[in-house]
Design goal:
Shape: elongated
CATH superfamily of the largest domain: Aldolase class I
Distance between the termini: 51 Å
CATH topology of the largest domain: TIM Barrel
Structural class: alpha/beta
Number of domains: 2
Mean pLDDT: 94
Low-confidence stretches: none
Strand content: 5-15%
Number of helices: 14
Length: 379
């Protein structure tokens, strides 16, 4: 889809929010390997970790920052001077600082310290953002639980960030409670209030993180926060591979990410996270370009576009015709041809019946060796 709109900037948080998923713990070597793969894939920004976790994390982030060739490396912290000081030690020249903006989160995190509620948030912005700027860093500010914040207060927060010198506001749907219609309206409203960059960070508790990210871009977001395979707390975050593909397919918006790199990147992260990639995972799953249904395969063999909206070659993948219970004559004939075999009508019918019976009995696809054996048995 041709479009003159500027590219959407991709901020990947696999090494920060993704690693916060229960049971995931990347080694420094794994973090570096993932970061370099993200960089090579064309991701614009890498949220590399949380310096407040300690010296080992600081060293890992510093290592990533020194070796990334294209992507900006950004440490994550809370909106405090102490976390800004720690981020400055990384030497990346960037920092993302987060602050709660919903009344519920503000009370829970600041109330026991005798803070002033919403005024405390605005005061922290006015204090810490210029402080971090003075430490030589560009500052992005995240609004935690923005999706449950009062819209008027959220507008005040964004204006305060702009006045303090911050260059971006990240709207976090921390609990994944939004729908695309509300997201689009929220970003359209914020875009009218400010000229700073707007970013969306969506969680997938309702299965809407990708859709909500697209809606945010439609409403005015210039940046999308994602994680490879949608890793993250609870149900995870908006998946990198889904967002970058869907931005182009549905909105005609470009990113710098190379689609052919997505599969290898997903496999790398899956190994490090010790989490298998589901076969039906959009874009990178093993079955995404696999076809069994006889009607589908018959159409594909005439025109691939009949049952594939995405060309597998774009993603470094190949189309697979799988033989099973739902296969038809066209599929069996086509797969036979790949192993140099052919069959006339009656024999083809017998092979097809045997394929279906084998698939039901074994509850798995019929492979090439199995097909060759069935061919011999029907001679």
């Amino acid at each position: 889809m041709p479009c003159q709109a500027p590219s959407v900037i991709i901020n990947d948080s696999t090494l920060r929010d993704g690693e916060q998923a229960p049971g995931i713990a990347f080694t420094p070597a794994e973090k570096l390997a993932i970061a370099l793969a993200l960089d090579a894939a064309g991701v614009d920004e890498i949220e590399a970790g949380t310096p407040a976790m300690g010296e080992a994390e600081l060293a890992a982030i510093r290592d990533i920052a020194s070796q990334a060739r294209r992507a900006a490396v950004i440490p994550w912290g809370r909106l405090t001077r102490a976390d800004a000081d720690l981020a400055a030690r990384v030497g990346a020249g960037r920092v993302h600082l987060s602050v709660p903006v919903s009344d519920r989160q503000i009370r829970a995190k600041f109330g026991r310290h005798g803070g002033g509620g919403r005024l405390d948030v605005l005061a922290r912005i006015a204090d810490v953002v210029p402080y971090a700027l003075d430490r030589g860093m560009r500052v992005s500010v995240g609004g935690e639980d923005a999706s449950r914040a009062d819209p008027d207060f959220l507008a005040r927060v964004v204006v305060a960030i702009e006045e303090a010198g911050g260059h971006r506001f990240r709207y976090a749907d921390t609990l994944g409670v939004l729908d695309p219609f509300r997201v689009c309206d929220a970003f359209a409203g914020l875009a009218r209030e400010t000229d700073i960059e707007l970013e969306f960070h969506g969680h997938d508790d309702l299965g809407l993180a990708t859709a909500n990210t697209l809606a945010a871009v439609r409403g005015g977001a210039s940046h999308a926060s994602v994680c490879v395979l949608g890793l993250g707390e609870r149900a995870g975050n908006a998946p990198l591979e889904e967002v970058v593909t869907a931005l182009g397919e549905t909105l005609g918006r470009r990113t710098g990410v190379d689609p052919a790199r997505l599969g290898g990147l997903a496999e790398l992260v899956a190994r490090a996270a010790c989490r298998p990639i589901p076969d039906n995972k959009p874009i990178v799953g093993a079955s995404v370009f696999a076809h069994e249904s006889g009607i589908h395969v018959s159409g594909l063999l005439r025109d691939a576009g009949t049952y594939e909206a995405l060309a597998p070659e774009r993603f470094g993948r190949r189309r697979q015709i799988v033989l099973g219970k739902h296969s038809g004559r066209s599929a069996v004939r086509s797969v036979l041809h790949t192993i140099g075999l052919d069959a006339e009508h009656e024999r083809l019918e017998a092979i097809l019946a045997a394929v279906r019976a084998r698939a039901v009995a074994t509850k798995r696809p019929v492979g090439l060796a199995d097909l060759a054996a069935l061919y011999e048995q029907t001679a």
